Amino acid sequence: MSWSADRAEAEARMDPAHVAYYAGWAGDGITLRANEEAFRRLRLLPRVLRGAGKLDTGMTLLGCPTAAPVLVAPTAFHRLADPEGERATARAAAATGTIMIVSMASTVGIGDVAAAAPGATLWFQLYIQPDLGFTRSIVGRAEAAGCRALVVTVDAPVRGRRDDDRGFTDLPEGLHCENLRDGDGVRPIVMSPAFGWEHLALLREMTTMPIVIKGVLRPDDARLAVDHGADGIVVSNHGGRQLDTVPATVEVLPGIAQAVGGAVPVLLDGGVRRGTDVVKALALGADAVAVGRPVLWGLAAGGEPGVTRVLSTLRDELEYALTMCGCAGLDDIGPDLVRRPC
Ligand SMILES: Cc1cc2nc3c(=O)[nH]c(=O)nc-3n(C[C@H](O)[C@H](O)[C@H](O)COP(=O)(O)O)c2cc1C
Ligand SMILES: CCCCCCC(=O)C(=O)O
Predict the structure, then answer these.
(1) Ligand 1 pocket mutation, candidates 108, 128, 236, 238, criterion most atoms within 8 A of CB
(2) Which residues bind FMN (predicted)?
(3) Predicted TM-score of the model (pTM)
């Protein structure tokens, strides 16, 4: 089943407002479409007769082994798709040896996600909250749950304007952002434009987890992130959900990878749908990629087995594409494998 068949199945099963939220985009959806289109425009140039044997797609990222350079991107509210929500996604991630970045806006608390999937490698995504004491307590819960990295999303100084998300405002009865629990209540997530690079030092002091900055689109910002002590970068435009008309992530990737110069791992998300997209991103400088919507559609269409299928298929497709390109492993991927459009 392809991700588009999963989406069709999700549309048949889910509340239309929730489908629209998952699918949603900022503005006119120019960036949303650009992410996928930019991958489609790139062409692979396979090498032949390379004498390659069985290949291994495994690697280590920030000390975490992963079966393939494909992570689960942080996405909110998995219980809109399946009653088990993030528990199901985490079990599928564990079964496929995939790192899952759990959203701060998960509908299962990070401790319960970890308990439900003991073998999973979890990273935790954070929106810094203006109440820094509360931020510290959220980070503390992630650390206590055994999360291995903190992914700080920086492309949301305010929530994206999503004209088309058809009225989705509140979670249905019984669903909450469980990581925002505070005493008897649940606090709202606050987006704020007030944060600066200096907040990285404050986070560093809150945790021993490596800190990854998600939402970088410019080489100079990537360099600033490294200079301020980031341990990794995610080149991301939030799947076209924040500022419309920003470029496709794979277009800005080479410049960012060059600016970072191997100092820290560079990840990319946005529009990754096939194993060939993974090869293209790695050829243009990414160490790994993350996938957002396909995981949500797989979860809605088939629960935990649906997510397992999405993640295994991506890995199979990656192996296939690498073999077809004459690569013996990930280290064989270089810029020569991709022809960019004129
Ligand atoms: C429904 C949905 C919810 C998301 N929630 C979050 C979130 O809570 N935190 C975050 O940093 N990014 C969030 N994102 C953005 C993803 O992490 C990722 O950047 C994006 O989905 C990648 O694009 P793709 O969907 O084309 O793979 C969300 C994306 C979607 C589609
Ligand atoms: C008001 C809560 C929003 C949670 C963040 C989810 C998100 O990042 C998204 O793109 O949607």
Answers:
(1) 238
(2) 74-76, 103, 125, 153, 214, 236, 269-273, 292-293
(3) 0.98
For residue 132, name the pLDDT band (cuts at 50, 70, 90).
very high
Whether 238 is a known active-site residue: answer yes
Q: Is 272 among the annotated ligand-binding positions?
A: yes
From the CA of 169, which ligand is nearest? 2
Q: Report the pLDDT averaged over residues 305-327.
A: 97
Give the pLDDT of residue 1. 72
Across-strand partners of 181?
186
pLDDT at 165: 65
The Å distance, Cα 140 to ligand 2 centre, comes to 21
228 annotated as ligand-binding: no
Residue 333, C-beta contacts closer than 8 angstroms, at least 6 positions apart: 279, 282, 283, 322, 325, 327
Q: Which CATH architecture has domain 3-328?
A: Alpha-Beta Barrel (3.20)
Distance 76 CA to ligand 2 centre (A): 6
Question: Ligand 1 site: residues with CB under 6 angstroms?
Answer: 21-22, 35, 73-76, 103, 105, 125, 153, 214, 236, 238-239, 241, 269-272, 291-293, 296
54 — pLDDT class (breaks 50, 70, 90): confident
Domains in the chain: boundaries: 3-328
Residue 7, ligand 2, Cβ within 6 A: no
